[in-house]
Structure formats: C-alpha cells, structure tokens
Amino acid sequence: MLDSIPGSSGYLESYPERRFTYFSNKYVLGLTVVAGIGGLLFGYDTGVISGALLYIKDDFEEVKNSSFLQETIVSMAQVGAIIGAVFGGWINDTFGRKKATLFADVIFVAGSVVMAAAPDPYVLIFGRLLVGLGIGVASVTAPVYISEASPTEVRGGLVSTNVLMITGGQFLSYLVNLAFTEVPGTWRWMLGVSAVPAIVQFIAMLFLPESPRWLYMKGEKAKAVAVLSNIYDPFRLEDEVDGLASAAEEELSRKKASVWDVFGNRERRHAFLVGGGLQAFQQFVGINTVMYYSPTIVQMAGFHSNQLALLLSLIVAGLNAAGTVVGIYLIDHMGRRPLAMMSLGGVFASLIILSLSFFLQSTGALAVVGLALYIIFFSPGMGPVPWTVNSEIYPQAYRGICGGMAATVNWISNVVVSESFLSIADAAGTGTTFLILAGISLLAFVFVAVCLPETKGLAFEEVEEIWRKRARGNSSNTRSLLQGGNSRQNDFKDTRNREDDEDIS
C-alpha cells in the first residue's frame, strides 16, 4: 500500500474517516478564499475596461479618434500580466507565496490609484501596465499557494475556487459598470474601485501563513508543521510531515532550479509541454473572444440595442460563474482529464452552432443559444482544469518557475486571440472565424486525450512518478501507478536519485 505517502489514494482508502470534503476545514477554505481575491482582481480588471472605455472616449478626444489608443488601453494590462507572470515564478520561489501575494497587492493598488487619477490617456496606460503586473504575479501565485496547502482529495476543488473568483470578478465588473453609469467621473470610479479588494487581501494575508511546503523546503520546519497542524489531525499530520521531509531531502540533492533546466530534463519538459499546452488551448478555443466581445457578437447576430447587448453579456458572465461552481465539484469527482474532454466536446458543438448561425444568417436567437452553450460547457472544465493541473504537475523546486512560464503562455495566447478576433472576422467572416475556433477545440480534445494524465487524488510525489515513467518510455496510467505498492516506492527513491544524471539537451 501507499500509506507512507501523504494524501495518496492508498492512504485514504486505509483511513477513509480522514478524508476531507470541500467544506470540512474552515481554515483551508478561508485561506483559499483570501488567496482567491487575486483571481477576483484578475477577473474584474479584464471585464471592467469594456464598459469604462466608453466613458474614457468621452473624456479624452484623442482616445475617441484613435483606435490604436483604445486597443493600447485595453491590452496594456495583458502586456503587464505577461511580464508579471514571467517574473512571478522567480518571486514565488525566492521570497515565498505570501510575500508574492503582498507584492502583487501593492502593485495593483498603485495601478488602480494611477488609473483613477490619470490626467491623460498616457498616464492611464501606465496605470493599466501596473495593474497588469499585479495580475500576472497573482495569476501565478494563487493556484500554487492554494495547492500546496490543500489536502490531495480536495485540491482540485480548492484550486478551482480561484477560477470561480476570476469569473465572479468578471460578473462583478459588469454590475459595477452599470452602477456607476450615472455617477460623475464614471470611468475613474470603475477603475479605481478595484483597489478595495487588493487592500482587503493585503490586510488578510498578513494574518495568514506561508505555504507549508515552501517553508519546509527553506528549512523553516517548525513553522511548516505549525501550519499543517491547523489542517490535519495528529494521525495524518505525521504522514504529511514525513512526506515533506522526504521531498525536502530529495530537493537538497538537486541543483538550483532554472528555466533552462526545465527544457534540459525529459520529465520536466514533458510536464511543462502538457501544462503550457493546456493554458494555450484554454485561450485558443476562444474563451476571451466570448468574454471580451460578447456584446459585439450579440450585435453582429442582429440585436442592435446597446442595452440589450449588455444585458445578454451579463447573463453570459453569470453563466460563466455558475458553471465554475459546478466545476469545483466535478474536478475532484470526475477527474481532470475526463472533465476537460467533456468540456471540449461541448465547446466544439457550441462553436459549430455559432458558426452556423452566421452562415445561415438566421435570427440572433441561435447565436445567443450558441454563446450560452459555449459558456455552459467551457466554464466547469477548460476554465479550472488548466490552472489546477499546472498547480500540481511540477516538482517542488520548479513549481514557481514552471507555473510562471505556463501562466505566461496563457497571457500571450490571450493577447493573440483578443487582438485578432475582430480582424479575422472582418477578413474571413464571423461564421468562418467560429469554424476555425471549432477546429482548434477539436485539436485540444485530441491533445488532452493523448497527453494529459489523470492527477485526481494523487500526492505531488506520485504525479512526479508519472512523468518519470513517461520520460523512460513506459506507458503507465494512473491506475497502474497507484497499484504499484511498496515496490513502486523503492523504484520512486532509486529513480529520483538518478534524475539529474538523465538530463538531456
């Protein structure tokens, strides 16, 4: 059995009474919600600018007369997020998950104040860049922080809570846009109010601990045990600490993590290609096309009223948040891989419906149905799965670096999709554009089916073993891995001792 491996399925089968549920530990849930405020800021800022831009154009004539300035104001936050994600992994691994979160909050508050007080569009653009830097760091930090403090059996649901906060932030941004439409200084309030949750998170994080795994790896063993004692009962605590001690011993024997080492080692390279591939496909199947341009799509389909377009877009955002709640339950019951495949199958069908609605020039109702179905299928699966998988598939020493690299892939893909949708739609037609996205979703389905292993309920060490076996050319699945017993544990030790000897360029 795997009793000596903390949180493994064998351990939980032996002691089912110690199995956690999503709501069974208020300490972990509270930590998750506070860390997830970073996701709320992520979602709010990506959604609020669509409404704020209408009023920015009224205040600044040069913005009204320049499509380039409008695009720059919208996209500069994404540019900042790319930079923040690039350095976010290093910040996480060097200073810890807690300090990385505090840093992101400070940057975000500064950016919000700059935007709200901007005397001209160029200062506003600088504020958007600052906010983007905070979003980028937060997008790396929150999933890793939550993952490392979560029991394995509910890790997927807890990490997915951060995605719920993202979709909730997008929904909140639509409500705030509506609330401030009649207030003097409209767009300044819309953009400046985002400082409030960042201040709340900063204060709350001061009272929360550092990630126990990061503490243990940095030699702060007593602090790590104190954090874990708030999560586990004394019986399971001993196994969790033993697992951390074993992992720490292995990490000490490894050379310092670097970006180049990710690609110079087969198993790490395999893990990153899967994690980064998931993040790219999340964007390239068109989610932010739907979220950023849903009012435009609705108007393209024949509903020309601005108010009706905004109302239908608010419904789409609400469905996105509701679907993520469903995903929190399904990800630890159905598993990551089947949930992603089911999600992508529905996304493909929805994009075909959207494409047909434009090819047939039917009533706008068919396009609205396609949009709604797209969100219903995307939000519980391809919304949370990429973030959850990337929080659990990398070795401890590379979790920050690889998480940052994968988040960077996500943000770059986000920029490519959001900046190209309208241009492609103008050049090739809206129906053809959705047909292209449907083809990409089919490729994503094949990618998940072939490349993504199931990680539901596995300890971090067990996930590492999956990549070792793949790197050696062994086609092992999760079931056979979990049935390996004590002989698997011995092989696990021997293989880790040889890991750096197997680096290849």
Automatic annotation (TrEMBL):
<dbReference type="InterPro" id="IPR005829">
    <property type="entry name" value="Sugar_transporter_CS"/>
</dbReference>
<feature type="transmembrane region" description="Helical">
    <location>
        <begin position="397"/>
        <end position="413"/>
    </location>
</feature>
<dbReference type="InterPro" id="IPR050814">
    <property type="entry name" value="Myo-inositol_Transporter"/>
</dbReference>
<feature type="transmembrane region" description="Helical">
    <location>
        <begin position="125"/>
        <end position="146"/>
    </location>
</feature>
<dbReference type="InterPro" id="IPR020846">
    <property type="entry name" value="MFS_dom"/>
</dbReference>
<feature type="transmembrane region" description="Helical">
    <location>
        <begin position="27"/>
        <end position="56"/>
    </location>
</feature>
<feature type="transmembrane region" description="Helical">
    <location>
        <begin position="365"/>
        <end position="385"/>
    </location>
</feature>
<feature type="transmembrane region" description="Helical">
    <location>
        <begin position="102"/>
        <end position="119"/>
    </location>
</feature>
<feature type="transmembrane region" description="Helical">
    <location>
        <begin position="68"/>
        <end position="90"/>
    </location>
</feature>
<dbReference type="GO" id="GO:0016020">
    <property type="term" value="C:membrane"/>
</dbReference>
<feature type="transmembrane region" description="Helical">
    <location>
        <begin position="186"/>
        <end position="208"/>
    </location>
</feature>
<dbReference type="InterPro" id="IPR005828">
    <property type="entry name" value="MFS_sugar_transport-like"/>
</dbReference>
<dbReference type="GO" id="GO:0015791">
    <property type="term" value="P:polyol transmembrane transport"/>
</dbReference>
<feature type="domain" description="Major facilitator superfamily (MFS) profile">
    <location>
        <begin position="31"/>
        <end position="456"/>
    </location>
</feature>
<feature type="compositionally biased region" description="Basic and acidic residues">
    <location>
        <begin position="490"/>
        <end position="499"/>
    </location>
</feature>
<feature type="compositionally biased region" description="Polar residues">
    <location>
        <begin position="473"/>
        <end position="489"/>
    </location>
</feature>
<keyword id="KW-1133">Transmembrane helix</keyword>
<dbReference type="Pfam" id="PF00083">
    <property type="entry name" value="Sugar_tr"/>
</dbReference>
<feature type="transmembrane region" description="Helical">
    <location>
        <begin position="338"/>
        <end position="359"/>
    </location>
</feature>
<dbReference type="GO" id="GO:0015798">
    <property type="term" value="P:myo-inositol transport"/>
</dbReference>
<feature type="transmembrane region" description="Helical">
    <location>
        <begin position="158"/>
        <end position="180"/>
    </location>
</feature>
<feature type="transmembrane region" description="Helical">
    <location>
        <begin position="271"/>
        <end position="293"/>
    </location>
</feature>
<feature type="transmembrane region" description="Helical">
    <location>
        <begin position="308"/>
        <end position="331"/>
    </location>
</feature>
<keyword id="KW-0812">Transmembrane</keyword>
<dbReference type="GO" id="GO:0055085">
    <property type="term" value="P:transmembrane transport"/>
</dbReference>
<feature type="region of interest" description="Disordered">
    <location>
        <begin position="472"/>
        <end position="505"/>
    </location>
</feature>
<feature type="transmembrane region" description="Helical">
    <location>
        <begin position="433"/>
        <end position="452"/>
    </location>
</feature>
<dbReference type="InterPro" id="IPR036259">
    <property type="entry name" value="MFS_trans_sf"/>
</dbReference>
<comment type="similarity">
    <text>Belongs to the major facilitator superfamily. Sugar transporter (TC 2.A.1.1) family.</text>
</comment>
<protein>
    <submittedName>
        <fullName>Inositol transporter 1</fullName>
    </submittedName>
</protein>
<dbReference type="InterPro" id="IPR003663">
    <property type="entry name" value="Sugar/inositol_transpt"/>
</dbReference>
<keyword id="KW-0813">Transport</keyword>
<keyword id="KW-0472">Membrane</keyword>
<dbReference type="GO" id="GO:0022857">
    <property type="term" value="F:transmembrane transporter activity"/>
</dbReference>
